[in-house]
Amino acid sequence: MQLDRAAAEASMVPLAQRLGIDTTATAHGIFQVVNENMISATRVQDAERGVDPRGLHLMAFGGAGPVHAHAIARALKMAGYICPAGAGVTSALGFLTAPTAFEFARTFMAKVTSNALLQMDAIFAELEAEGRQTLLEAGVPAADITFARRADLRHVGQGHEIVIDLPYATLAGVDVDQELRPLFYRHYAEIYGYAHQHLGLEVATCRLTASGPRPKVTVQQSERQTDAAETAGKGQRRVYFAELGGFVSTPVYDRYRLPPGATFAGPAIVEERDSTAVVGPHSSVRVDAFANLIVTLQE
């Protein structure tokens, strides 16, 4: 750890000299740039989905996610964030718990009419046959195969589409004006706040997801509850928090020894093999029964 820290500080020297500031300010500047990139991207995603982040918790995973989560959640005025146990391998866990699935797509440009829906049905039938064969070759029993249909739809003449789930086993018999158009307008309004209901629809792409069954995974849950976070303490370390004016002595906790029910206040550092959580000031932490760190931001 000391060698890694020394190497990190040494890597800041050339840039710090060019900027005319010290290595601490340089490192914090890089940290802020990374945060701002993620904050901006999250704001775009929120706007596209019509989501208000206030009251929500950010899920912080990946090796570096829990390092940046506090600043991101604070900037977005979120209620807090969650650092799952084994945050650094959460993506791998998701891969292992996801069903075997394949996605297929076929370009089909047309105005949405009853005749176009029949053509889309034919395309979906071909995609289902391809998906079924692919899953059978992957070892998925035929009885466990399911399909989900989607389509890229847009207003007539629009340059961008939105992906709409099609809750129909077949499109034959679906009423374009009474069923499909209201479905599109509702989703479009949820994203953008308004839909041009006087305009017709165009389809650009037919999409199909062919899936097998989801693996059954049991997550260990602890029934033992305590509020004694001190048992997991590893001592104190000076950590830089700009909002506190610089380096402050900060408690460090061993993630593997934090018992469910334990609570503590930020600032704090929580270390595990694959990730480090940096809990900023003006926050409180609770460890739940699944060993997740539930961080609540305070005013």
Strand percentage lies at 25-35%
Helicity range of the residues? 25-40%
Overall 3D geometry? elongated
For the sheet with most strands, the description reads: 5 strands, mixed
Low-confidence region ranges: none
Give the tally of β-strands.
Answer: 13
Our count of helices gives 6
Structural class: alpha+beta
Series of H and E elements:
HHEHEHEHEEHEEEEEEEE
Mean pLDDT: 89
Biggest sheet, spatial arrangement of strands = 1-2-13-12-9
Span between termini: 34 Å
The Rg value, from CA coordinates, equals: 25 Å
Would you write up a description of this structure?
It is built from 6 helices and 13 strands. The longest helix is centred in the first third of the chain and has 27 residues. Helix 1 crosses helix 2 and helix 2 packs across helix 3. The model has no long low-confidence stretch (mean pLDDT 89). The strands form 3 sheets. Strands 1-2-13-12-9 form a 5-stranded mixed β-sheet, covered by helices on one side. It starts with a helix and ends with a strand. A hairpin with a 5-residue loop joins strand 12 and strand 13. It is elongated and about 70 Å long. The protein is of the alpha+beta class.
Care to give the gist of this entry?
This protein has six helices and 13 strands.
Q: Can you lay out the helices and strands and say which pair or pack?
A:
Blueprint: H1 2-19, H2 23-49, E1 57-59, H3 65-75, E2 80-83, H4 90-97, E3 101-111, H5 114-137, E4 146-155, E5 162-166, H6 176-192, E6 201-211, E7 233-241, E8 246-254, E9 263-265, E10 268-272, E11 275-279, E12 283-287, E13 293-297
Parallel strand pairs: 1-2, 8-10
Antiparallel strand pairs: 2-13, 3-6, 4-5, 4-6, 7-8, 9-12, 10-11, 12-13
